[in-house]
Amino acid sequence: MSFNVPDKRYFKIGEVSKLADVAPYVIRYWESEFEQITPKRAKSNQRLYRREDVLLILKIKRLLHGKGFTIAGARKLLESDQELEAAQTKPNKPLKRTSTTKRLEEIKIELKQLYQQLEQKK
Length: 122
What we know:
This protein is mostly helical.
């Protein structure tokens, strides 16, 4: 798994936020959920993330957002030091869709249609 992370010693939370494409509060939350994320603190008490922390955050994002893991599942996978690819039974297996997920997708489509209708009436 390769990510395009600049070769720097430390990253501020705003930089990590842009690299991972998640809000800073999400990163702070992940810090509380994943003990492996351990930023240092500057004298100004600002978080300073090492390159390893950034790579871990990107891996966590991929697990949660890309592969559909729960936080508990991602934590368990990271604690067991397994590789993501080894943890999957089939590499390109689509996520199992639940009835709730299907219903949410239907609602999303309906909302988009309503939005388009409202836009046409303007």
